[in-house]
Amino acid sequence: MNAKLITVIAFIGILSSCHFKSPDRSNSAEMFNEKYRPQYHFSPPTNWMNDPNGMVYHDGEYHLFYQHYPDGNKWGPMHWGHAVSSDMIHWEHLPIALYPDSLGYIFSGSAVIDVNNTTGFGSKEKPAMVAIYTYHDAKAEREGKVDFQTQGIALSLDNGRTWTKYKGNPVLNNPGIRDFRDPKVSWNEKLNKWVMILAVKDHVTIYSSPDLKNWAFESEFGNDIGAHGGVWECPDLFPLTDDSGSTHWVMLVSINPGGPQGGSATQYFVGQFDGSEFIPYDTITRWVDYGADNYAGVTWSNIPESDGRRLFLGWMSNWQYANEVPTTEWRSAMTIPRELKLQFIDKEPALISTPVDELKKLESTPVKFSETINLKNSLFKLDLKPTELPFELHFSNDLNDELIISFTRENVKVNRANSGKTGFSDLFPATHFMDMKGKPMNNIQVYSDRSSLELFINGGQLVMSELVFPNSPYNKLWITNKNVESEITYLKPIW
Ligand code: FRU
Q1: What DSSP string describes 192-204?
Q2: CA of 480 to the centre of ligand 1 (A)
Q3: What is the Cα Rg of the chain in Å?
Q4: Residue 336 pLDDT > 90, yes or no?
Q5: Does residue 215 surpass a pLDDT of 80?
Q6: Which ligand 1 atom sits closest to the C-alpha of 67?
Q7: Most CB atoms closer than 10 Å: which of 173, 312, 387, 420?
Q8: 447: which residues sit within 8 A by CB, 6+ positions away?
């Protein structure tokens, strides 16, 4: 997010918090039934949410912390909200984990389990959960300083239920750069140290530490590679093994603006990492998701080896209009949790994203149909196999809203212009393109919820996530070519 914008929105946030009283809400299904409230995607009980933070698996629980402003439904002074799940699909909302303090708001970051007790915060028998996050000192920013973002840590000895900030914070001072944030930390076997990847203005910096408290510079990456239409944010760096058994390293870097649809998006690089320096295989900019609405996504830490998956979650919005989308009690949802895999297609690395298998729990019996279908509700998955191109999907309702997605040999095009409520931002109704030249269109999966569609093409080789706000739920789907084998599977709500 642009630093000036942050200041302005924070100010508005503080003002609006004076009038806005947080409704008292529990975890019940009735409470999560507002118009547009996602029924199988994670969303906060009330008020504002942006990036997923501190994603870590521990003792049977997937933890999801998130950027949260509890006193209003626009971006404001950031806290870490918190929820846990045993399957990444059904969530239990927990009290706020981290509150702003004298060092600043709590911006994005990660969490680890300190199994070797390198911090001395816990013990080997009962390791601490440690959050590593950015402090954003809004006062210092207002005073015109540039060193207002630093990194801090906090510990929990009760599975993330209560937190203590480390007295020695900040653990990483600012070297005089305005954008210096979003630490993602992991244990590196080669170095036998913690490694942090941090977004620094228009590149990333890698640091290492024996104890999460003392950090040393290792290397920089990205000054002259990748997209540079905006500031770099929320990086991640992790190994992935391809089908042939070779291990490669994947770096995710979100960028805002400058994504393929203009605003926020996440690019990735594939290469090798020796614990100190990341060397990419090529200089091509590739995108995790070509849709407008998947930002700041990172992966879960500490997934047991017996599971071995690399699990990803993104914020399903875009800074172009995130503060304006037409929802009231809450604002924003996360994407479907996705498993990431690496494949080499025509010798080029490709990050493959597929919905996690756990989502299948929500599925009912699939039903085949041809060309048109009356939709019972908005919660479904479509499986499409085109034996001929082009074709279009027309989702419509009785109020003449229509979302059109077209598939040709050249591209996939999502046209939200007449999709429902679009007037909250000039940028929302834009048509979004994803290039398909030279690529097949073997199979398409579309996941629909009350206010989103996620497209997975060729088994997740290409992805588009898109928000949509129909005035009433789309109740009809027309496929403009009968040579598309089509199947619909309704999904059960999670609340
Ligand atoms: C990304 C971001 C991060 C920052 C957070 C503030 O969406 O701008 O860089 O830490 O949001 O809420």
Answers
A1: TEEEEEEEETTEE
A2: 41
A3: 22
A4: yes
A5: yes
A6: 12
A7: 312
A8: 336, 355, 380, 381, 453, 454, 456, 491
Predicted local confidence at residue 30, as pLDDT: 75
Q: With contact defined as beta carbons under 8 Å apart, do 489 and 364 qualify? A: yes
Buried b (16+ CB within 10 A) or exposed e, 139-150: ebbeeeeeebbb
CB-based contacts of 29, cutoff 8 Å, min separation 6: 493, 495
Distance separating alpha carbons of residues 75 and 210, to the nearest angstrom: 35
- What residues line ligand 1, using a CB cutoff of 6 Å? 1, 50-51, 67, 78, 107-108, 134, 181-182, 233-234, 296
CA trace torsion 22, 27, 33, 36 (10° rounding): 60
Ligand 1 center to residue 374 CA distance, Å? 40
Q: Which amino acid, residue 168? A: G
Q: Are 37 and 330 in contact (CB under 8 A)?
A: yes
Half-sphere exposure of 88 (CA within 13 A, CB side): 26
Assessment of whether the complete model's pTM goes beyond 0.90: yes
3-state secondary structure 38-87: CCCCCCCCCEEEEEEEEEEEECCEEEEEEEEECCCCCCCCCEEEEEEECC
Calculate ∠ Cα 432-433-435, nearest 5°.
160
The first and second tokens of residue 292, run together, are 């407008």
Token pair of 230 as six digits: 């905006």
Q: Token digits for 228?
A: 């540079």
Cβ-contact 342, 248 below 8 angstroms:
yes
Catalytic (active site) residue 51: yes
